[in-house]
Amino acid sequence: MTNILIDTDVLLDFLYERESFCEDSANILNLCDLNKISGWLTPVMLSNIYYILRKSHTHNEVVVKLRELLKILNVLSMNKDTVLLALNSEFTDFEDALQNYAAECNGEINFVVTRNIKDYKNSSLEVLTPNDFLLQYKEL
Predict the structure, then answer these.
(1) Helix (H, G, I), strand (E, B) or coil at 7
(2) How would DSSP label each residue in 53-121?
């Protein structure tokens, strides 16, 4: 099965129904829901999504949305080794480094799916936009 790390921006595109990006995000999450691919996120991403959504929703509303996401997505482990790899990396964004190394350390993640490709230029994983992933997925 194809395993992907779905970056925060892609999840927020779906949750906020961002017009230009929502369809690709929804299609990716639908593939996860149908168990055609395995989608992953990190605890840091959950925390960030909670914080961002909390600005426009109640605590209970946000918790419901996160629970719904967790019905179809898996959570990568993070530990001291993950943090040290991120701290000692060439990544300029610590949060992206944490995500990346959680995915790399998992050993089964095939792709990082993000709209911010440049943020993952130091990744050893293949990094694709949601649209490029969907196009490539059809060929897998």
Answers:
(1) coil
(2) HHTTS-HHHHHHHHHHHHHHEEE----HHHHHHHHTSS-S-HHHHHHHHHHHHHS---EEE-S-GGGGT
Task: Give dist(CA 26, CA 14) in Å, integer.
Answer: 6
The domain locations on the chain are 2-75+108-139
What is the distance between the alpha carbons of residues 118 and 132, in angstroms, rounded to a whole number? Answer: 15
CATH of domain 2-75+108-139: 3.40.50.1010
In terms of Cα–Cα distance, which of 126, 139, 89 is closest to 5?
126
DSSP assignment letter at 129 = -
Q: What is the DSSP letter of 20?
A: T
What does the pLDDT look like over 64-78, one tens digit per residue? 999 999 999 999 999
Phi, psi (rounded to 5 degrees) for 48: -65, -40
Say if CB 2 and CB 111 are below 8 A apart.
yes
3, two tokens: 């395993």
Tens of pLDDT, residue by residue over 42-64, are 999 999 999 999 999 999 999 99
